[in-house]
């Protein structure tokens, strides 16, 4: 089906279109999800703690002084939380789909995320915007889109790959006619070290299907995304 610009210019409230993260149902805790924790538990925390202890020694500090005594174990637990998504397919987060009589654009913007840069093991923090064109009215819950972002972020990651993984998950699971994913993040490895440019943002996009092919449609989406 062709998507005209008009069809995305006039949103029907029931079809949900641009929404902010504040409107999403994220009531269930992702970290408490038993399945995720089971995956996380495959991480060898003892080995991680041992490595952290060696880093402390390598830095010339004394890992046995009071302030550092629990640090290796604490850091190991922290990494369990930061990378729990490593063996989880982001597409598996789209656990339910609905059929609505809509072929119109769905757009969720400003989904916050934090991930860990695999080159420096420092965080990068930002927001994700997702737009897709449903095929045959197949949509998913908006919170599922936020979960896709969450799982893709919870691993040692690079922003470019994370963007692609989110787009692929939505394209494959919903068979969407078009997908646009835009990530905007500050990388602490650029802020704290090296070039030391705090506040600089990295933007990455992934485009699929009709949104990739239709320049006017893509521009319309970018206009919606740039609205305050
Ligand atoms: Zn980095």
List keywords for this structure.
single chain; GTP Cyclohydrolase I, domain 2; two-stranded antiparallel sheet; elongated; 228 residues; 9 helices; alpha/beta; 2 domains; binds zinc ion; six-stranded mixed β-sheet; disordered N terminus; GTP Cyclohydrolase I, Chain A, domain 1; 38% helix
Secondary structure elements and their pairing?
Elements: H1 5-9, E1 19-20, H2 34-40, H3 45-58, H4 71-82, E2 97-99, E3 106-117, E4 123-133, E5 138-140, H5 142-153, E6 156-157, H6 159-174, E7 178-187, H7 188-191, E8 202-208, H8 209-213, H9 215-226
Helix pairs in contact: 3-4, 5-6
The structure holds zinc ion.
Zinc ion binds next to loops.
What is the H/E order? Answer: HEHHHEEEEHEHEHEHH
CATH topology of the largest domain: GTP Cyclohydrolase I, domain 2
Low-confidence stretches: 1-28
User: How many separate domains make up the residues?
Assistant: 2
Query: Mean of the pLDDT scores?
Result: 85
Structural class: alpha/beta
CATH homology superfamily of the largest domain: GTP cyclohydrolase I, C-terminal domain/NADPH-dependent 7-cyano-7-deazaguanine reductase, N-terminal domain
Sheet with the most strands, sense and barrel status: 6 strands, mixed
Known CATH architecture of the largest domain? 2-Layer Sandwich
Instruction: Bin the helical content.
Output: 25-40%
Task: Tell me the distance between the termini.
Answer: 31 Å
User: Rg to the nearest angstrom?
Assistant: 20 Å
């Amino acid at each position: 089906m062709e998507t005209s610009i008009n069809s995305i210019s006039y949103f029907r409230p029931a079809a949900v279109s641009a929404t902010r993260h504040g409107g999403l149902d994220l009531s269930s805790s992702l970290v408490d999800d038993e399945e995720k924790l089971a995956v996380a538990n495959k991480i060898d925390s003892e080995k991680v703690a041992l490595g952290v202890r060696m880093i402390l020694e390598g830095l010339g500090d004394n890992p046995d002084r009071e302030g550092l005594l629990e640090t290796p174990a604490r850091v190991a637990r922290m990494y369990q939380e930061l990378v729990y998504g490593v063996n989880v397919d982001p597409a598996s987060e789209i656990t339910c789909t609905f059929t609505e009589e809509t072929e119109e654009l769905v757009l969720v913007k400003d989904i916050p995320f934090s991930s860990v840069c695999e080159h420096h093991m420092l965080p990068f923090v930002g927001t994700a915007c997702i737009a897709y064109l449903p095929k045959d009215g197949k949509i998913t819950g908006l919170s599922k889109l936020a979960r896709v972002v969450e799982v893709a972020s919870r691993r040692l990651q690079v922003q470019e790959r994370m963007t692609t993984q989110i787009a692929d998950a939505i394209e494959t699971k919903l068979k969407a006619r078009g997908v646009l994913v835009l990530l905007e993040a500050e990388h602490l490895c650029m802020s704290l070290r090296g070039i030391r440019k705090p506040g600089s943002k990295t933007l990455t996009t992934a485009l699929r299907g009709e949104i990739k092919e239709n320049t006017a449609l893509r521009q319309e989406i970018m206009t919606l995304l740039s609205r305050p």
